[in-house]
Amino acid sequence: MVKNSFISVISQEEKEENRGSVEFQVFIFTNKIRRLTSHLELHRKDYLSQRGLRKILGKRQRLLSYLSKKNRIRYKELISQLDIRESKPR
Questions:
Q1: Is the dihedral of CA 34, 19, 63, 87 positive or negative?
Q2: Which CATH architecture group holds 20-80?
Q3: Do 33 and 54 meet the contact criterion of CB atoms below 8 Å apart?
Q4: Which terminus has fewer CB within 10 Å in the chain: N or C?
Q5: CA distance 58 to 53
Q6: C-alpha to C-alpha distance for 17 and 64, rounded to whole angstroms
Q7: CB–CB of 27/82 below 8 Å?
Q8: Where are the domains of the chain?
Q9: pLDDT tens per residue, the chain (90 residues)?
């Protein structure tokens, strides 16, 4: 179920240079979320993994909201590259 196409979004050079960038952090969180989601499909009662997934989802959501406030163009590009749907404003 986990796609390998999203791994090629950020090239090797960018990974080494911009580890602290918002895009890279969202990319890493997205990989973790997809991995945990596939794990939880097999192990439905793994409550600690469910909690970890919720924590990572919250962190990614906060980073995405920060990016959408600071630079809407980069936010749209990142959403389209990672195939994450756009969150609804509150």
A1: negative
A2: Orthogonal Bundle (1.10)
A3: no
A4: C
A5: 9
A6: 20
A7: yes
A8: 20-80
A9: 444 544 455 555 555 667 889 999 999 999 999 999 999 999 999 999 999 999 999 999 999 999 999 999 999 999 999 988 766 666
